[in-house]
Amino acid sequence: MSTSYPTAIPRRRWLTISGFVAVALLPLAFTGLFVAAAGDGESAIDNIPVALVNNDELQTTTTAEGEEQIVFAGRQLVTELTGADGFEWTITNSNDAEDALARGDVYAILTVPTEFSESILSLSTDAPSQAQISIRTDDSHSYLTGSVAQVVGQSMTDTFGRAITSQYIDGIYASVGELGGALSDAADGATELADGASDFSTGLESYSEGVGSLSSGLADLNYGAGNLDGLTAGVDEYTAGVSQLASTLAAINPAIQAQITDPQLKGTLQAVVDGLNQASAGGGTLNTQTADAVGGIQYGISQSAAGASQLADGSGELTTGATALTSGAKELATGLSEGAALVPTADDSTDTTTSADIAAEPITLSVTTDNEVSEPAQAIATFFIPLGLWLGALAVFLVLTLPSYRSLASTARNGRIVAATLVRASIVTVVQAVLLVLLLHVVVGVDWALAPATAGFALLMALAFAAFHYFLIAALGRGGLVISLFLLAIQLTSTGGVYPIEALAAPFQAVSPFLPLTYAVEGMYTILSGGSPASAITAAVALLALGLVSVALSVFAVKRIRKSAATGAILSAADSRAL
Question: For residue 568, what pLDDT band results from cuts at 50, 70 and 90?
Answer without folding.
Answer: very low
